[in-house]
Design a protein that fits this description.
By secondary structure, the protein is α+β, with helices and mostly antiparallel strands. It contains 4 helices and 3 strands; from the N terminus they run H-E-H-E-E-H-H. The chain has a 3-stranded antiparallel beta sheet, covered by helices on one side. The longest helix has 17 residues. Bound molecules: copper (II) ion. The site of copper (II) ion (CU) has 8 residues, from helix 2.
């Protein structure tokens, strides 16, 4: 599991080389492995995005929902893992929060104005596959200019 986290972090760092601004916000999101204390609901769903900056925007949006305990968006799988307290929020609220930040989820389309405000390297392809299983590797990073 540590390896996965490390490689996600490495990918995030790679992403930053093309997205120069906003490098700092990244750190808080890479360690999200403890969620046993309360009755947490674990949820995974697809979210489109390109790079490490997308990751921080998406995770920040999801973290902003009350009751969300941890989030981790996977840049390769285009998938987010969220654990949250379902007495405080629900899946749709999380979908909507992410969509409001400009990103498409499986259930809610990203807000267009927010999308327009994203840095160029984050303007992901709306036809991108998402929530891919671990085996199928997407060839992102290269051909997703819109
Ligand atoms: Cu991005």
């Amino acid at each position: 599991m540590k390896k996965v986290i490390l490689s996600v972090a490495a990918i995030a760092v790679l992403g930053f080389t093309s997205c120069k601004n906003e490098t700092k916000k990244e750190t808080e999101t890479t360690t999200t492995e403890m969620s046993k204390d309360m009755a947490m609901t674990n949820l995974s769903f697809g979210v489109r995005g390109n790079c490490g900056m997308c990751k921080s925007t998406i995770e920040k949006a999801a973290n902003g929902v009350e009751g969300v305990a941890s989030v981790n968006w996977d840049v390769d799988k285009k998938k987010i893992d969220v654990s949250f307290d379902d007495s405080k929020t629900d899946a749709m609220a999380i979908h909507k929060a992410i969509a409001a930040s400009g990103y498409d989820t499986e259930k809610v389309e990203g807000d267009e104005e927010a999308y327009e405000d994203l840095p160029g390297c984050c303007k992901y392809d709306h036809d991108m596959m998402m929530n891919q299983s671990g085996e199928t590797k997407s060839d992102d990073h290269s051909n997703q200019d819109h």
